[in-house]
Design goal:
Strand order of the largest sheet: 6-7-8-3-9-10
Strand content: 15-25%
Largest sheet: 6 strands, mixed
Structural class: alpha/beta
Radius of gyration: 18 Å
Helix content: 25-40%
CATH topology: Rossmann fold
Shape: globular
CATH class: Alpha Beta
CATH architecture: 3-Layer(aba) Sandwich
Number of domains: 1
């Protein structure tokens, strides 16, 4: 079985359950969103997918093999993970950061550092120290580093956070293009329901359980949104109005 798959995965932090019986197979070439309230388990699920956490029950596999059993460049050449926050020493320049991502993987068809910097709109900032660019530009630099690694499966934790609307849509368009033209599989967490409607598939988490899995346009209805985010049912009409405006 190729790609990333979760099979009956459960995980707890100590005595506190976080992920419960989660099963999903990610298809090649899909741009998949992961939504849910704060604390629903989105970041934990991505870390399980990246092999940084080990499931208490069930199995996470990458190309038919337990994700934790892939080592070093083998895993890095297949899977790239971008956490929500990433601390790096700021003396690095933008290009140097991207080169670190490229050094991590050995995939034959990787994009060049120059290509990914052009894609994320930072070609003219390549020589600048990270400390001298904005927070949104820094986020795009980290995404460029992840793309340069060359994995065919990308796990991105809130990659659009901190970006203005223009770059949110531009980066979503870039990710979709990579899925369509290079067959990448991308799973990203996000909170913005307007942006979620632009994805190929949506996974909805509630208290660590898979509440729904399907097309965004079909799932993002008032009843499911209220249930997902524990909204007062009387708020359903304002949610419906927002969905209509989207």
């Amino acid at each position: 079985m190729s790609g990333l798959a979760f099979t009956q995965v459960s995980f707890s932090y100590g005595q506190t359950p976080c992920i419960r019986q989660f099963s999903v197979q990610l298809a090649k070439g899909q741009l998949v969103g992961l939504i849910g309230a704060n604390g629903s388990g989105k970041s934990t699920l991505l870390r399980l997918g990246a092999g940084l956490l080990r499931a208490d029950q069930g199995q996470v596999t990458l190309d038919g093999k337990s994700v934790g059993s892939w080592r070093g460049h083998e895993r890095a050449s297949r899977l790239s993970y971008l956490p929500q926050t990433l601390e790096v020493p700021l003396p690095f320049r933008v290009l140097e950061l991207v080169e670190m991502g490229r050094a991590a993987g050995h995939h034959q068809q990787r994009l060049s550092c120059e290509e990914v910097l052009e894609m994320v709109g930072l070609a003219d900032k390549a020589a600048l120290p990270l400390a001298e660019i904005s927070g949104g530009e820094r986020q795009r630099a980290f995404l460029a580093m992840t793309l340069a690694q060359g994995g065919s499966t990308l796990l991105l934790d809130e990659p659009l956070a901190g970006l203005d609307l223009r770059y949110q849509y531009e980066l979503l368009a870039l990710l979709r293009q990579l899925c369509q033209e290079r067959g990448l599989t991308i799973l990203l967490s996000l909170h913005d329901l307007m942006l979620a409607r632009e994805l190929d598939r949506l996974l909805v988490l509630r208290q660590g359980e898979l509440l729904a899995d399907g097309l965004p346009g079909e799932l993002l209805q008032p009843e499911l949104v209220c249930r997902t985010f524990d909204l007062d049912p009387t708020a359903r009409w304002s949610v419906a109005g927002q969905a209509a405006r989207d």
